[in-house]
From TrEMBL:
The nucleosome is a histone octamer containing two molecules each of H2A, H2B, H3 and H4 assembled in one H3-H4 heterotetramer and two H2A-H2B heterodimers. The octamer wraps approximately 147 bp of DNA. Residues 4-68 form the TATA box binding protein associated factor (TAF) histone-like fold domain. This is Histone H4. Signal peptide: none annotated. It comes from Lottia gigantea (Giant owl limpet). InterPro entries: ARM-type_fold (IPR016024), Histone-fold (IPR009072), TAF6 (IPR037796), TAF6_C (IPR011442), TAF6_C_sf (IPR046344), TAF_TATA-bd_Histone-like_dom (IPR004823). The lineage of its organism: Eukaryota, Metazoa, Spiralia, Lophotrochozoa, Mollusca. One of its GO terms (cellular component) is transcription factor TFIID complex. It comes from the Eukaryota. Gene3D superfamilies: Histone, subunit A (1.10.20.10), TAF6, C-terminal HEAT repeat domain (1.25.40.770). Keywords: Nucleus, Transcription, Transcription regulation. Belongs to the TAF6 family. Its main location: nucleus.
Length: 354
């Protein structure tokens, strides 16, 4: 495997099978080179597990351990202990494992009982669901705690709110309530979109939850819902945006910082959190039908995701957006005063990115 090479022809066939029939030779060469390197890399890593196990035969578990080490999804369905025999097609270009036909009727009706079939066991796995019917029934104490915390978060007394936020940050007993709090925050932002202070409190609640070391947000529904709630505050023209006395800009700044924290902490190659977040921010920024407050949020979000995102996504695509922004800044008419002020906020955000 030290010299494993995946030829361009194989890449081309796989691309055509996936609907990409117009890949150029340069692209095929780059993909082939990268895949060949990755295969050699994971194989070399897997041999370390083989040697550690004092074996001379590489097995699929060694390979899966190497994949997990590289944050790549493991391979399933290839753990058979039987030796696989590869055959060659007539043209000689492809090797394959021949599938044997199995008659299940003969097996089901046969009198032969396999030996050493092992003991029957049950292995349980917890699933937490977000929407109503799948929720686990709560005890009265947990339900009372949930009701008290949600009321305290929106209390007019700032000390009561702070106590609720601090408890969400450190309480180890709220694991069964995680789906409830995620629902509360994510759907709450749309309910109180007219109130800057309540939106800010809900973002603080998200901050407390993600910093609670006892909570696990790796299940993708949790991450997706939390990110969507933050994106709503960051890029949507919420009702507060149309009141010039409301400082919705600070709300968007805080949402951007929180978004960056979540992506840095929880993104991995399996959940595609970074890719999906960048794509959504990019779509908002270069949608010229969106208001400038949304564009401002998209810029601040991209900045929060790091210098690499700014250099690879924001700066190369900036010329297509600049003329639209410049036109709004140059319009000094009275009716354009608010739009012009918002455009200058976007301009300031772009200067920060540089």
């Amino acid at each position: 495997m030290s010299f494993a090479i995946i030829p361009k022809e194989s890449i081309r066939m796989m691309g055509e099978a996936s609907g990409y029939a117009d890949l150029s030779d340069d692209v095929l060469s780059l993909i082939s080179e990268d895949i060949s390197y990755r295969i050699r890399e994971v194989t070399m890593n897997s041999t370390q597990y083989m040697k550690h196990g004092k074996r001379r035969k590489l097995n699929t578990e060694d390979f899966n351990k190497a994949l997990r080490q590289m944050d790549v999804q493991p391979v399933y369905g290839h753990g058979s202990g039987e030796v696989l025999t590869f055959k060659q097609n007539k043209e000689g270009d492809i090797h394959f494992v021949e599938d044997t036909e199995v008659n299940f009727c003969d097996i089901a009706l046969g009198k032969h009982i396999p030996k050493n079939i092992g003991e029957t066991t049950i292995k349980g796995k917890w699933f937490w669901f977000i929407s109503g019917k799948g929720k686990k029934e709560l005890s009265e104490d947990l339900l009372s705690y949930y009701n008290n915390i949600t009321k305290s978060l929106l209390d007019i007394d700032p000390q009561v709110r702070m106590m609720a936020l601090n408890d969400l940050r450190v309480n180890p007993n709220i694991v069964p309530l995680l789906s409830y709090f995620v629902n509360y925050v994510c759907y709450g932002v749309k309910t109180v979109s007219h109130d800057i202070s309540k939106l800010t409190i809900l973002l603080h609640a998200i901050t407390s939850l993600i910093n609670n070391p006892n909570l696990d947000f790796s299940p993708q529904p949790y991450l997706n819902l939390m990110v969507q709630a933050i994106m709503y505050n960051l890029t949507e023209p919420v009702a507060t945006s149309f009141n010039n006395t409301n400082d919705h800009w600070s709300l968007r700044d805080y949402a951007a910082r929180l978004l960056g924290e979540i992506v840095r902490k929880w993104s991995n190659p399996l959940n595609h959190l970074l890719y999906n977040t960048v794509k959504e921010l990019k779509d908002v920024l270069f949608d010229l039908n969106k208001p400038f407050c949304s564009h401002y949020g998209a810029v601040m979000g991209l900045i929060a995701l790091g210098t690499k995102t700014v250099e690879e996504i924001l700066l190369p695509n900036l010329p297509s957006f600049w003329s639209h922004l410049n036109m709004a800044m140059e319009d000094t008419s009275i009716r354009n005063a608010l739009v012009r002020a918002d455009a200058y906020k976007v301009y300031g955000a772009l200067l920060v990115s540089l």
